Amino acid sequence: MAGVAEALKAIHAEGIVHRDLKPSNVLLAADGPRVIDFGIAPAADGTAYTATGGTIGTPSFMAPEQAAGDEVTAAADVFALAQTAAYAALGKPLYGDGPAVNVLYRIVHSEPDLSLLPQALRPLFARCLAAGPAERATPEEIVEWCRHRLGAEAEAGGGPAVWREFTGPETVVPAPVPEPTPAYPQPPVPAAVSGPPSLSASTSQLTSAPVPVPAPGFPQPPAGRPQLTQEQRRGRRRRTALITAAGVTGGALLVVALAWSLMDAMDRLDDRDKTGSRTSATGPAGQPSASAPGSAPGSSSGSSSGASDASDPSGASDSAGSSAAGARDGAAEDVAAPPADPRPEGFPLVWMDAKNSLSLTGTEPSQENRKGDVRFGCESAGCELKGGHTVFVQIFGGHGTTLDECRLVLDSATKHEWPLAGAAAGTEICMKDDKGNIGLYVIQTKSTALPDLAFLQGDLTVWRNADR
Hints:
Elements: H1 2-13, E1 26-29, E2 32-35, H2 64-67, H3 74-90, H4 100-109, H5 122-128, H6 139-150, H7 152-155, H8 159-167, H9 199-206, H10 230-282, H11 300-311, H12 313-336, E3 345-353, E4 357-358, E5 366-367, E6 374-377, E7 384-387, E8 391-395, H13 403-410, E9 417-419, E10 428-432, E11 438-447, E12 455-463
Antiparallel strand pairs: 1-2, 3-12, 4-5, 6-7, 7-9, 8-10, 10-11, 11-12
Helix pairs in contact: 1-3, 1-6
EC number: 2.7.11.1
Pfam families: Pkinase (PF00069)
Protein name: non-specific serine/threonine protein kinase
C-alpha cells in the first residue's frame, strides 16, 4: 500500500489524477509495486479527457464524487487505493458485487463495512474511504503511517524479502551438459584362415544368383488382414445403403410426428379458447349474464325476479348477502393489487442542440424552442444537460437499463445539471421531471468539438407517471 501511495504522490506532484486505480492496474515487481494504465487520466487542473468517450473509471473502485459526476480530484485516487488494498486483503470488493448501478448506489449512500479487516488497519481505511474528499488522508500521510508501523523494516528495503515470500528461493540453473561423443561401431574381426582361399570358393561367391528386386506396383495389404471378395464388397455396400435409407426414413417420420403433435395441440388450444368465450358470455350453469347493456329497470325479467324474491324472503336475503360479500371481496382485491408499470413509449433519434429542448410530458418530446424542461448547452467543456425541474443520473457500465434501475438511481438524485464530457455513443442517462415522468436517453451520436455547432442525437424512452 505504501508503494502505491508513493506512486500516487509522484503523479499528483505532476498534476495528474489517475481516475482508474484498481487491482489490475497494479503490478507486483521484485522491488515494489508498479502503477500502470493512465488511459483516462486527465490533468488535475484541466477539463478535457485524454480518452474521449471512455468509461470514467471502474464502478467497484469509484469514489462517491466520481460516481455522482462531480469534480474529481486527487482524493479520488486515495479512495480507489483503499478499495484496492481492501480487495487484496479480502479477495472481493469492499462494497460487494452485482450490477454496476447497485454498486454505485452503495458507494454513494452507504458506509463501508470495515469489520472484516484487521483491527490495526481500520482507522487508516476509515480515513481513506471518507465520503468527503477533504476528509481523506493524503498519499504522504499513508506513506508516513506505513513507515511508522514497519519501523526499522521500512528502511531495510523489505521489497525483495516480501517478493521471496511469494516466489520462494531463487532457482539455480545448472550448467549446460556437454554434448556426448558419438560412439561408432567397431568393424567385425575377420575369422582366421589357415591358408589362402580356394579359387572355387571365390568363383562361387561371384557367380551366386542376385536377390530379385520386387517390381513396383500398388501397396499390398498386411498379411494378417484377409482380402474381401467382390461379393463381400457388394454386400457391404448394400448394407451401407440400407442403413442410410433407414436413417433418412426414420428422420422423416419423426418430423411428421412432431408436426402432427403441434397441429393437434394448436387445435386443442383453439377449442379451449372458444369454450372459454362461450362460458364467459353465458355465465355459470348456462344462466344469461346479468344486466345486459341497454336493459331498462322494471322490465319483465326484473318483475319475475321480484316475484320470485317476494315468494322466498330467505332466498332473497341470502342472495343479497352473497352479492354484498362478493362486492366487498372484489373491492378488496382491487385495492390489494399493485399498480402495473406504465407502458414505455419509444422515440428514436431525438435531436438536441442549442436551439431546441426536450420535455417528458407531451406526446412529442422534442420541442422546436427552448421552452422544454431539458436543454442541451455547452457552457462548460464537453457540454452538459440542464433541467429546471428535471434531475439526471448517468448509468456507468453495462447497457439495457430498465425502468426499475432508473427508479433506483433517481430516487435520491438532486443534480439538475449533468456534464457530458465523459459521455459517448452508447451512454445511458436516466432523467425524471417533477410530474413523476421518467425518461432514458441513450446517446447514439455526440458532437461537441465545436461548441457553436454541438449536438446530441439518441433514442428516448419515456414512462409516464412512473415515479412510485
